[in-house]
Amino acid sequence: MRRIGSKQLHLLLLLFWVFLLACFFANVEIQIEGAHGWAASLPTWRIDKHQLLDVFWGGRPMTGYHAWIFSFMFLVFHLPQVLHNSFSLRVEARCLGCLMLFWITEDFLWFVMNPVFGIARFSPAFVPWHKQWIFGMPRDYLVFTLIGGALLWWSFRDVGV
Fold it and tell me: Global pTM?
């Protein structure tokens, strides 16, 4: 397989691609959900309260829509490993890091591009499904940006001989 450019160029291209995917998917979700974020008006099952949702889901409800869409995107981000019939911890870290950055970017773009919200309404007062905020953003944004960034950094770092 032919490589194009340096690791830095590869990382920039990868981040641009994740941003592009997030932009397109945010628009899809805006068309599906409209003004009613977190599948509030979709005809899907919903679990509103559970201890595990507080731990793993930021206190947000689990919906059938989100169970399927999160699983689907997990599979999409792992498609290159299946296409190339290969697996490594570095590539897995890269897939998971990109997936985390995708969801954070997609979620933020949903607010920015949604004509009902916009950046002015990106706050706990207007976004009840994000229950934990820090530094003016949902806590998940900070946590998963740091974890996703660390996974990407590790996946691109040089290995000593």
Answer: 0.90
